[in-house]
Amino acid sequence: MSKLSVSHLLGIKYLxxxxxxxxxxxxxxxxxxxxxxxxxxxxxxxxxxxxxxxENSTRTKLSFELAQKRLSADVINFSASNSSVKxxxxxxxxxxNILSMKVDMVVMRHPNPxxxxxxSKHVNASIINAGDGAHEHPTQALLDCxxxxxxxxxxxxxxxxxxxxxxxxxxxLSNIFALKKLGxxxxxxxxxxxxxxxxxxxxxxxxxxxxKALQWxxxxxVLRVQFERMKASFFPSNREYAMQYGIxxxxxxxxxxxxLIMHPGPINRGVEISSDVADSENAIILDQVQNGxxxxxxxxxxxxxxxxx
Amino acid sequence: xxxxLFLDTKEIxxxxxxxxxxxxxxxxxxxxxxxxxxxxxxxxxxxxxxSILEQEDHLEAIEHGFLDITFFRDDFRxxxxxxxxxxxxxxxxxxxxxxxxIDDVLYTGRSVRAALTAIDSYGRPSExxxxxxxxxxxxxxxxxxxxxxGRQVDAIADEKVLVHWHEEHGEDAVYIINKTNE
Lengths: 309, 182
Hints:
The structure holds two protein chains of two kinds. Helix content of chain A is about 40%, strand content about 15%. Chain A is an alpha/beta fold. Chain A has a five-stranded parallel beta sheet. In chain A, strand 3 (about 105-110), helix 4 (about 115-120) and strand 4 form a beta-alpha-beta unit. Chain A starts with 16 loop residues before the first helix and ends in a 5-residue tail after the last helix. In chain B, helix 1 crosses helix 2 (about 40-55). The mean pLDDT of chain B is about 90. Chain B has one domain (about 10-155): Rossmann fold (3-Layer(aba) Sandwich). The chains are: A alpha/beta, B alpha/beta.
């Protein structure tokens, strides 16, 4: 077995194809581990990890923390809302203070794109990007691809459409990088106001008609409309968005084909996806969450093996 | 590379038959026992013993499992080698069962220690025994000894004991290899 080519997980674009393959192979072993009667292994018992979240998170934070605990790592949690960041401390000072308490790895979410990269250059610890602004969210893309591979056997040649708020989404960008590396065909679909200009240059197609996009695809990855990042009005109303781009049973019946429905969560039920679709058999939203723990365990395990004793 | 043949096919066959007999003597019909092979190299040995017990003693459906110990090893981050996992096939509960851990070569004892920890994930066995084909005596790092033993060998640290199985290498044989000449 080879090692990862990187010492930090900053984004999918820094990973090689072999890295992704290694992460998937290790993830399937950890998926078996988390389905044992006792789900804990002692691999990381001498590793200390800080989860630093400058932005809200439920799933990612829980998933990382659970993955760390399943690997027996020592975990400290930090969220910006109740810390000295409010008193004006800089990012490097905050993190260096945490590191002086002998922390080996940092999992960080930050509202600014490039924050994880910046940190990796200035502090002495292994950095995992848990989302940096609208830039990348590599663990989400890896768990999405792992889930597709698990359901469909392989990713090469599969057609994946990413639907919704592409403009504000780090999940979209990381997914595009990962899917392209793994040989999938990728399309983005949504109102033009929510699709970044020149996104075709990433080697993907753009479609504004939801029905046509679904007709084309094997997998539909539905993204959340990120109201909290919207500083202008990108569409007239939620109701209109739901009518044009909401995945409902009616739309799926019209398309009439086997489609895998994914959503990174949290769901705005009734906006980008209706409840009956989100809870249907074709939706693998909860599988994604379970795979998230296994994939994060694999990433922590593989990166920890590169930390000097 | 100097390969010294330590056991040939016939000798291995005799040893396996004896080990199966010893297991039978202690565990009778195996109704409360489980054979667990440590992955990857203990798995073949378990399959061999099962087939002897089935053919000679007509004992079918003996409970068994193949245990991967990768994530329990104590040399993670301490060796240059990346620890790569194997398939873990443990569709059994060891609660209150007599477990026989099985591996091909007993060397430092660290794999067995990891296996003892890993077994805990599947329940609390009433007892655990150890069966190994080869025991490299005088090279133990931990106080661990086999209960059932194929053959002892005094190999020095520069040497490696390699077990070949018909299923994987086309022959049953045990070689002692000098690592310095590898």
